[in-house]
Amino acid sequence: MNLGFNNQGSYETEFEEEVITIGEKERVIILHNDDYNTFDHVIDSLIEICGHHPEQAEQCAHITHFNGKCDVKKGPEVILEKMYRKLKLRGLSVTLED
User: Fold this and answer.
1) Full-prediction pTM beyond 0.85?
2) Span 64-75, pLDDT tens digits
3) CATH second-level architecture of 22-97?
């Protein structure tokens, strides 16, 4: 969602919509620990791509560091597939699982 003022001084909103089919398969993005991504890079990626709040992204980064992996997002396959690809492009070690 994007909020901003228009030329008339009132708020305008923009929404990105995804059409979800009832009964669509749920998937999970799992972040795996690695030795090359910094905490800041992982946190920024989770905020920007997965829509995490900063505290949530930081917790996921720490859980991944100490446990080796962490579920970072659950939802419909059509939405998670896009997030998964974007995280991979940023060099994060992620898997998309059932």
Assistant:
1) no
2) 999 999 999 999
3) 2-Layer Sandwich (3.30)
